[in-house]
Amino acid sequence: KHSFKMASVFAYQSSEVDWCEDNYQHSDKVAEFYNTVSSMSFFFFAPVMMYLLHPYARERSQAVHLIWVMVMIVGIFSAYYHMTLSYVGQLLDEIAILWVLAIGYTLWFPRRHFPAFIKSSRSHFAWLVFFTASVSTVMSFAKPTVNAYALNSVTLHILYVLTLEMRSCTDKRIHRLAAVTVGWWLLAISCWLSDRLLCGFWKQINFCYLHSFWHILISIAVAHGTTLFAYFDAIYEIPEAQPEVKYWPSASREIGLPYLAVKNKEKTQKCC
Ligand SMILES: CCCCCCCC/C=C\CCCCCCCC(=O)N[C@@H](CO)[C@H](O)/C=C/CCCCCCCCCCCCC
Ligand SMILES: [Ca+2]
Ligand SMILES: [Zn+2]
Fold it and tell me: Carries keyword Nucleotide-binding (predicted)?
């Protein structure tokens, strides 16, 4: 009996949640084909961002790379989850997202908005985040269906912090980047909610792929959002590196993927 229970948490469709896409349309091993394939978008963006952020990570912290390694792990779990729609798949996906957020907060949450009792120690703040994420990890087993909503609510807090930062920022290009970031996120979250709540409608018109769009759109939004927070953080923490937002692949125009460029310290030292 016990071993049966162990097996069932891995079983196909043991998760309470089933996304709008029809199951087993392309293979009887893959429950949601398009949702599984589109999880690969995390695998496209993460290595590109890792490469582009190399100079920034060197100046600031190698933990910047950890974010993108974690995003790739999210990609693996997300693909596994949509392939199986299993309980374990769902929890792995959600818990991995929670810990990417935790690392993001530890790295980039602006010091001046730390809670008062933390003073301004980032390592104390890291402990607070670690504690909160650990408690949330344990709690996530209680009601897995609410986890995704809870994670999406964290984004609302990120948007709030972003608003605070934008108030004291006068750079027009950063304001534009913030608007573009929020735009991508709005598109992403509309797809996620619509897939969740209006599936009946999308089924009627035979278009139930919105969750796949979410995967791609949220990857883009995360790449933009991390650039913004990396920028604010660099302005406070490594101003001597002269942080500047650049775009890839077109360096001159403000289109494409944004990333944080920094001046190479050694180079500046040599020439001065
Ligand atoms: C001080 C702020 C620091 C910001 C750090 C941001 C670090 C990046 C964090 C997360 C990467 C998230 C990757 C999303 C994976 C989605 C996988 C997925 O589709 N899962 C679904 C099930 O298949 C599940 O239902 C989704 C749950 C909700 C996920 C919420 C993700 C939040 C993303 C945060 C985006 C920030 C963008 C900035 C917006 C202004
Ligand atoms: Ca489905
Ligand atoms: Zn998904």
Answer: no
